[in-house]
Amino acid sequence: MQKYRALIVDDEENSRSNTKNMLSNYCPEIEIVGEAGSGPEGKVKIQELKPHVVFLDINMPGMNGFEMLEGIYNRDFCVVFLTAYSEHGINAVKAGATDYLMKPLILGELQGAIRKVIQHYEAKGGISTKTEVDKNMVLINHSKGFNLVDFKDIIWLEANDNYTTLYLNTGKKIVASKTLKEFEAILPTTDFFRSHRSTLINVSYIKEYSNNEGGEVILSDGTHVQISKARVQEFADFIKNRSVSPK
Fold it and tell me: Among 73, 95, 123, which residue terminates a domain?
């Protein structure tokens, strides 16, 4: 039997557990590969686990389900929204949901949603067994529109109040209408490190490190970026567990 990889994103632990139990016991086509308790964590898990379907709660504090989906340009997974509030139906349709289920979940409706997921992939010719994608595009909104950027092309990011400046390996920079915290939630934690409250660096572009004033890295574009004293040990551990490829 073909298995479809599923991720559950819900801030309520009891709700996650109930969804997990129903899927595990009554939906043999589904393989649960992970859980997340918030929108930012959900974005990270999606990039790490590459699910075929995400069971996504709408009403979550800080970042709701609709907001979580923003910025995921290469969205190649199905979304089944879960909510206790019926008024979200129209927005769920607009967000391209495969299905929309009311809590508490009814088994027949959940199994119906699974059938829709299967039909979606069968219409595409089946699911891919690859767990990685060649391109990891990020949608960058700015004052004049948007850019689509492969995260591998981002050298570093700098906070500027409610905006963020992205410095690319092409020499180009983009001022985006997202906070650095939002980008930290979107970008993969295996490649990006929050070196300071105002900077996020792609560690693949590190050329040199020195312990000047606590810690400092020199990036491939010649930029000197401070590592805050509070993060020096965390940075050392991060680098130790990752092979950095010089550019």
Answer: 123
